[in-house]
Amino acid sequence: MHLKNLLNKRIIGQGYEKAAETFLAKKGVTTIERNFNCKLGEIDLICQAGETLVFVEVRYRNNKSHGGAASSISPAKQRKVKKAALFYLQQQNINVNHCAIRFDVVTIDGEITNLNWIKNAF
């Protein structure tokens, strides 16, 4: 993939992540961190919903010919997000046994206004 295409995909992805963040904020979910990266993976949004720390994966698909955005989250992707979340918790000195956590997904199929929030997705 050319660098220009990679940069364009990143900019487009950031737009969808911002739409998801705005959507969640209207639901009372506060963003703590965006695009957390570590050697184990990436987390699009890390949020706070009440007492719960929420790790959010944002997925977009232009059309549903390949199953839509929700079906694009493979078991391997789920494992990567979970490993990155555990790394984040360790880095922040948060004991997973004393903190409620959840893995959510915000999907966008087609139009950027067509958002679906899946709580406890995996």
Report on this model:
Helix content is 34%, strand content 34%. It has one domain: Trna Endonuclease, Chain: A, domain 1. The chain contains two helices and five strands. β3, α2 and β4 form a beta-alpha-beta unit. The chain is an alpha+beta fold. Strands 1-2-3-4-5 form a five-stranded mixed sheet.
Structure, briefly:
Helices cover 34% and strands 34% of the residues. It is of the alpha+beta class and 122 residues long.
Task: Note the beta-strand portion.
Answer: 25-35%
Whole-angstrom Rg: 14 Å
| Integer tally of domains | 1
Number of alpha- plus pi-helical segments: 2
Mean pLDDT: 90
The largest beta-sheet arranges its strands as 1-2-3-4-5
Q: Low-confidence spans: pLDDT under 50, at least 5 residues? A: none
Number of strands: 5
Largest sheet at a glance?
5 strands, mixed
Key structural traits:
five-stranded mixed sheet; 5 strands; globular; 122 residues; single chain; alpha+beta; 34% strand; Trna Endonuclease, Chain: A, domain 1
List the helices and strands and how they pair.
Blueprint: H1 3-26, E1 30-38, E2 41-49, E3 52-61, H2 75-91, E4 100-109, E5 115-118
Parallel strand pairs: 3-4
Antiparallel strand pairs: 1-2, 2-3, 4-5
Pfam families: UPF0102 (PF02021)
Family: Belongs to the UPF0102 family.
InterPro entries: Restrct_endonuc-II-like, tRNA_endonuc-like_dom_sf, UPF0102_YraN-like
